[in-house]
Specification:
Mean pLDDT: 92
Order of helices and strands: EEEEHEHHHHEEH
Distance between the termini: 31 Å
Largest sheet: 5 strands, mixed
Low-confidence stretches: none
Number of strands: 7
Helix content: 40-55%
Structural class: alpha+beta
Length: about 180
Amino acid sequence: MDISLLIPDKDQNWIVRHNILYYRKFALIPLANYINGDLYINLDNRYLMGVVKLVKYCHKMNIDYMFLDYLTITEKFIPNENLDGIFSNNLLSICEPKIFSLIKNNQINYIEIICKFIKLYSCQNRFIKVYDELNKEHFQASWFDWYDHKKHYRVKDEEIREYYDTLFREVKISLLLSEE
């Protein structure tokens, strides 16, 4: 499929080079690529509005996609050693309020996208490892402030922490139901 068909608006900063969709914002930021016939979108914080526009456009046009990190989006294939970084990038992107609002409003079927990626690359154990590490070190990381007498979390939004807590269970259920 031609990647230039994914350009969501008439902005002149969208550029296609070597069948990779870039956005020019001080530098060329790769946002979309076809790898082995599947569309991948880069969850890049450098231009989050472009990612949101691209995701909304794909949702509106019923185009299937998966997420990658900024290191792998320009590759011709996805090496196994990059899977931990890809999962880490995808899970940490939940903390971005714009991405989380898309997930909450069902404009991103996040669980389905993760399950599709896990099945495609047979990497459920790697997902579990990265999920557990991020749960301890980021999403549930907290400290007690003795002056305020309050517990503070690294991820301040309680709704995001609750979503992350239920994410693993939802992914396992979805994977089990899809095997039948």
